[in-house]
Every structure is written in C-alpha cells, then in structure tokens.
Amino acid sequence: MGFSESKGAGGVTVVQVDGQLIIGNRQELKDLVQAALDRGERRLLVDFSRTGYIDSSGLGALVSISKRIREAGGELRLSGLNDDLRSLFELTKLDTLFAITETPEQALASF
Fold first, then answer.
1. Other C-beta atoms within 10 Å of 11: how many?
2. Per-residue pLDDT tens digits for 53-72
3. Assuming Cys at both sites, which of 20, 62, 74, 89 could form a disulfide with 94, CB separation 3.0 to 4.6 Å?
C-alpha cells in the first residue's frame, strides 16, 4: 500500500495509488503532489487502477489537491476508478469536479 510517482507521455507526472486512500495515508499523497508542484510540475495524473477503497478523508484530500493544482495553474486528471469508486464519485458529485478517464493512457492523451 502506498504511492509511486513516474513520468508519463508528454512529461505528465503520474501518481499511482496502491491499495487504499484513507485517513492514514492521505497526507503522504498531498505531500507528494506538493513536492511535484514545488518542482514546477503542472500536469498531474492520479491513477487508481490498483485502488480498492477511498474513504471520506481521501476524497477530501483529492479536493484539496485539485484546488492546489488549479491555483498553481496546473491540470489534474484521475483514471482507473473501479465501478465502486466511480459510483462514489458520482454519488458525491465529485465526477463534476474531476476530469476522469477509464485508463491512464486516455488521461495522458487528454492533456
């Protein structure tokens, strides 16, 4: 369980979430994104292909991250949500806040 960072096509920063995004690890994700912004990165993709659960604090962290990226003049995309996670984003109306694609490749092509 954790996060890994890599470079995708076009120099997009890709953050892979492994396991869960919960209260116990949300700050780690926020710190990782802030470090990328501090390095001048402005295009970020968070890939949930290997994620099974996001709790309310994890959703809050994503909203906070989205705001930070927008304020820095950047763009954020999400990809790889399973059916349960996609339903969660729809129920909370967060699907209207985030640009969400099925696959990381689709997200990278949309930048």
1. 10
2. 999 999 999 999 999 999 99
3. 89
Q: Give the span between the Cα atoms of 46 and 82, in whole angstroms.
A: 14
Give the amino acid at 82: N
Q: Is pLDDT at 1 greater than 80 in this prediction? A: no
All domains in the chain, ordered by first residue: 2-79+92-102 (3.30.750.24)
Q: Classify burial at 93, counting beta carbons within 10 Å of its beta carbon; exposed 0-12, middle 13-18, buried 19 or more.
A: exposed
User: What is the identity of the amino acid at 32?
Assistant: L
Q: Are 86 and 53 in contact (CB under 8 A)?
A: no
Which tokens go with 90? 């729809």
**Nearest Cα to Cα of residue 97 among 64, 72, 73:** 64
What single-letter amino acid sits at 34? Q
- Quote the CA–CA distance of 20 and 22 in Å, as a whole number: 6
